[in-house]
Amino acid sequence: MGQCHGKRIPPRHNVEGGATTFSGTVHDPPPTPARSLADVLLTTPRRFFKLPFPPPSPAKHIKASLAKRFGNVNPKEHTIPEDETIDNDEQPLDKNFGYNKNFDSHYELGMEMGRGQFGYTCVARVRKGVLKDQEVAVKIISKSKMVTAISIEDIRREVKILKSLSGHKNLVKYFDSFEDSINVYIVMELCEGGELFESIISRGGRIAECHAKGIVMQILSVVSFCHLQGVIHRDLKPENFLFHSKDNDGDMKLIDFGLSNYVKPDEKLSDIVGSAYYVAPEVLRRSYNVEADIWSIGVITYVLLCGNRPFWSRTESGIFNSILRNNPNFDDLPWPTISLEAIDFVKRLLNRDFKTRMTASQALTHPWLLNENYHVPLDLWVFKLLKLYLHSTPLKRAAQRALSKALTENEFVYLRAQFMLLEPDSEGFIGLDNLKMALARNATEAMKESKIPDILNSIGFWRSKMNYEEFCAAAISSWQLGTLKNWKEIACNAFIHFECEGNRVISVEELAWELHVGKSGYIIMEELIRSSDGKLKFRGFTAILDGPRRRFSIG
Fold it and tell me: The CATH number of the domain where 50 resides is what?
């Protein structure tokens, strides 16, 4: 819904840097390969986000999302697909939000800081209360521009999420909401240091690797907090991170939850929102979860390190096609001068298969960022993997246990941190009560709203205890490990353990049932079983690890 607040600047038409968003705001064109991010954004004129897009692209769905969210202002430019129509006979929109009505008695508006699609942001002085005479930021949203029910719901949800999220130092503080007949006013803490985007530009278009680490760690920390609460931001970009003070080496704050939403771990969202350069491929395919935020962090990190965007084109549809089809360039300067750990980090975030990306908490334990003094947050991903493990067959559990014994120390850093966050008992065991207490310790109102605690109901049958060794077996994903360069070596070592401890005689029918394969696939199943003793071959072992959707990944 536009910027929350930014640096103090004269009024202008847009403060969103050069990012192309799906909301119809004014933006810079994308860079060409020969020009840096700083060159492009400082020298090119702004232009409007134009529709329609030339095929092939996800344009049809994006146009539908735009029309539903912001209104069909120009029918000739916005074509609604057959299954989505706008009813001109709808009842008048209810623009009464139920917020306080006496904004002027509480705050005195000052300098305008920035202007966006739906309104603008100002500095304000607090007239009374515990914050009296302090300065705050006020996001002012015009009711006249709320032309659809969805745009109104976006504002309600933004305020609801801001109110429900609290307790993280890198999250902008929410104070209050007001309304009158003309505007909605969202009051938040003032961040005077300017955007991360501006910091990149001021440093010549890229940031030194050592400094980029600190920035990325702050981003991952606050995003992992949001994901644990069941909130997906959906518009992560450098413009939405502000430095709290004018010292650009200080804390950053994540702002602008206008496109955010609550989401359960197993839920899929389908509406296409975000900023074009930072949008994940699964968003364009209309089926995504919090992993889409991780992709955006990968794009941000790429920009920080080299000063160029990993996916670019001269048209919006070209950007989307590049995201869906092209790989980022790690060959040209300055990438040969950047550490291999940093390159590996970015690659593991910019993986098109969202199931193989690191989570925000996992990324904080990557060798590039690893800092013994930095707190690794609780990861909801662990709860999902524990659930899958507890529901899996004895054969799958045996394969997981064998895999855990072949892991390298890098993987154990994350697993050890997560296990300790569950606070095992004096004998080193955890159970369902540990999971409940861990969630309770980290809960905000947002977690309750997104119904995250409900995931414990699906493993409520769990009555036994689990030690660290079995936890490691449960909390690993072969999908993620499969992206590592040494994956085949890990899998081979794991198979050695499996041969000694878990491999057994198995029938074709049982293996087909395990992998959800029908009778037509029995011939393939026979190829995964040794004829000499009726036990699994190496390929059968990796098929068990990968599950029914990605079989036979190592030949």
Answer: 3.30.200.20
Domain enclosing residue 357, as ranges? 196-363
- List of long-range contacts for 203-207, beta carbons under 8 Å, 24+ apart: 204/36, 204/38, 204/307, 205/36, 205/37, 205/38, 205/39, 205/307, 206/36, 206/37, 206/303, 206/304, 206/305, 206/306, 206/307, 206/334, 207/304, 207/305
Average pLDDT, rounded, for the chain:
83
> Contact 24/139 with Cβ under 8 angstroms?
no
Q: How many domains does the chain have?
A: 3
**What does the alpha-carbon distance between residue 37 and residue 204 come to, in Å, rounded to a whole number?**
9
Given a contact cutoff of 8 angstroms between Cβ atoms, the answer to whether 17 and 2 are in contact is no
Is residue 35 located within the same domain as residue 105?
Answer: yes
pLDDT tens digits, 311-361: 988 888 899 999 999 999 999 999 999 999 999 999 999 999 999 999 999
Please check whether residue 31 lies inside any domain of the structure. Answer: yes
Express each pLDDT in 11-58 by its tens digit: 433 333 333 344 433 334 344 343 445 444 433 333 333 333 333 344
- For residue 465, pLDDT over 90 is answered with yes
Q: Is residue 545 part of a domain?
A: no
Residue 100 contacts by C-beta under 8 Å, 6 or more apart in sequence?
106, 176, 177, 178, 179
Give dist(CA 482, CA 489) in Å, integer.
11
389 within 8 A of 397, measured Cβ to Cβ: yes
pLDDT at 511 over 90: yes
Helix axes 291-306, 340-349, angle to 10 degrees: 150
* Rounded CA separation 422/418 (Å): 7
In tens, the pLDDT along 114-143 reads: 887 778 999 999 999 899 999 999 999 999
| pLDDT reading at 403 higher than 90 | yes
> Does one domain contain both 181 and 221?
no
The pLDDT score that the predictor gives to residue 328 is 94
Please check whether residues 226 and 245 belong to one and the same domain. yes
Q: Is the bond preceding 29 in cis, omega lying within 30 degrees of 0?
A: no
Same domain, 341 and 215: yes
Angle at CA 147, nearest 5°, toward 143 and 150? 100
Both 284 and 420 in one domain: the answer is: no
Condensed to tens digits (0 to 9), the pLDDT of residues 74-111 reads 433 332 233 333 444 567 889 999 999 999 999 999 99
Residues 201, 330, single domain; the answer is yes
Residues with active-site annotation: 235
Residues 384, 411: one domain?
yes
The residue among 135, 167, 189 that closes a domain is 189
Quickly state the pLDDT bin for 374 (edges 50, 70, 90): confident
In a domain, 173, yes or no: yes
Residues 353, 210 share a domain? yes
Helices (H) and strands (E) in the chain, counts: 22, 13
Q: Of 458, 485, 502, which residue constitutes the final position of a domain?
A: 502
3-class SS letters over 498-519: HHHHCCCECCHHHHHHHCCCCH
In whole angstroms, what is the distance from residue 469 CA to residue 352 CA? Answer: 31
Burial of 125 (0-12, 13-18, 19+ CB in 10 A): middle
Phi then psi dihedrals of residue 122, to 5 deg: -130, 155
